[in-house]
Amino acid sequence: MKNEILASLARLSDAALVVQVKALVRRERDVTAEVVAHLAELDTRDVHLRAGYTSLFVYCREVLGLSEWEAYNRIEVARTVRRYPVILGMLAEGAVHLTAIRRLAPHLTVANHEDVLQSARGRTKAEIEEIVARLCPRPDVAASVRRLPQATGALLDVPRVATGMETLAEGTGPEGPGYDAPAPVDLRSSGPLPGAGDRPQVAVGFSRPGSAQAVTALAPDRYKLQLTISGNTLEKLRLAQDMLAHAIPSGDQAEVLDRALTVLLAELAKTKFADTARPRPADTGNGVHEEAAIRKPAARHVPAAVKRAVWVRDLGRCAFVGSGGHRCNERRFVEFHHLDPYVLGGEASVEGIQLRCRSHNDYEGRLYFGERRPARGLVPEQVTHRASRGRPGGRELVE
Fold first, then answer.
1. Among 38, 30, 27, 148, which Cα is nearest to 90's?
2. Dihedral angle at the C-alpha atoms of 252, 254, 255, 258, nearest 10 degrees?
3. Which residues contact 26 (CB under 8 A, 6 or more apart)?
4. N or C: which terminal CB in the chain sees fewer CB atoms within 10 Å?
5. Are the C-beta atoms of 159 and 185 separated by less than 8 Å?
6. Is 113 in contact with 88 (CB distance < 8 Å)?
7. CB proximity list for 328: less than 8 A, separation 6 or greater
8. In angstroms, rounded to a whole number, what is the distance separating the alpha carbons of residues 289 and 377?
9. Under DSSP, is residue 367 helix (H, G, I), strand (E, B) or coil?
């Protein structure tokens, strides 16, 4: 059955596939809103107790087959919906997601819930955290450096228990307000922890490595950063604090980090597009000066002056615009992209170059050259099939 579904989908055009996906997502939102409404009513009854389960959470997990996170999110949202029924319509509409409601729930009141919910429309989880930080600002966290055990399996578990950041809730748990969360591990004691060696890993705060919660909004324009560093990095940090003692007597790590990133960004700007405070009108290698190169360079190589102008104009972000008008805006792995390929006469001028993320740069190359430009991670026959759906020479992306 599954193979038949996949086979039937492979025969669909891009447009038909997108239409079906959007329809399914709309149905999923409607069903999710209905499930939340049913749980809201179920929470007012003793069905789970009569069935032999200690809580609605356990009932959802064992009878309905929901995961712990699915059950917890839906129950918390259902309880919020009972207070503010307008949320159901927003869930069905797709204006807000379950995580947004769960994060905002403790801060909603009769007086503010309409404004807060409207401000949450279409927001990502990180943006919701910003709203929460405005509603309930938290004080700055104290800078600290603590020794962690060697990089073993236990290293991944310590941050989760110590911070409580991604436990089931902040101050509550899946069983409700009376749930007893695991006791936090006290790592403030002096001396190395068991298992720590001569080259320890050191945490500035705590976070699961690679966690999306490494940066948390505390208050407007104030953030908590968590990361794990090596012993060598710690020595560099301490050395920087010592060398900046005249300018930063307190040795504030946040200020040291800010200065370090400022220097790093300036260095990266020089490396990526020869940024300099005093650009020289030097020869570009084609007998034309930099100002002329901005207008119309003759070489395939993108001159530094063009790179600087393009980077500033595109704000350091992918400038690809989809058929529906949405701009990509990705900032990672951006590349300088010829709007018209050089082999077809495209010039490395400010007008002929735009920033592209790696994915869109590769995508537009395949639209021009088809199977002669294999897509990353795709075999040639997949490239031929996909490229045949695009408009040769075009720059469209189905939403």
1. 30
2. 160
3. 94
4. N
5. no
6. no
7. 317, 318, 319, 320, 321, 322, 357, 360
8. 41
9. helix
SS3 147: strand
Contacts within 8 Å (CB) and 24+ apart, 152-158 = 152/195, 154/195, 155/201, 155/209, 155/228, 156/208, 156/209, 158/185, 158/187, 158/206
Cα–Cα distance measured from residue 347 to residue 295, given in angstroms and rounded to the nearest whole number? 10
Q: Residue written as tokens 């020595």? A: 235
Q: How many residues does the chain have?
A: 399
Token output for 190: 């002096």
CB-facing half-sphere around the CA of 217: CA atoms within 13 A: 17
DSSP 8-state secondary structure symbol assigned to residue 176: B
Report the distance separating Cα 361 and Cα 397, nearest Å: 12
Q: Is the pTM of this model over 0.70?
A: no
Instruction: Give whole-number Cα distances, 365 to 301, 393, 397, in Å.
Output: 17, 9, 13
DSSP annotation of 206 reads -
Per-residue confidence of the chain (399 residues) as pLDDT tens digits? 667 888 899 999 989 999 999 999 999 999 999 999 999 999 999 899 989 998 999 999 999 999 999 999 999 999 999 999 999 999 999 999 999 999 999 999 999 999 999 999 999 998 999 999 999 998 888 877 777 766 543 333 333 333 333 333 333 444 443 333 334 333 333 333 333 333 334 444 433 434 445 788 888 888 888 888 888 998 999 999 999 999 999 889 999 999 998 888 888 877 777 666 666 554 444 444 545 444 444 456 888 888 888 988 998 899 999 888 889 989 988 999 988 887 777 888 899 999 999 989 988 888 888 755 444 544 444 434 443 443 333 333 333
- What one-letter code names the amino acid at 149? P
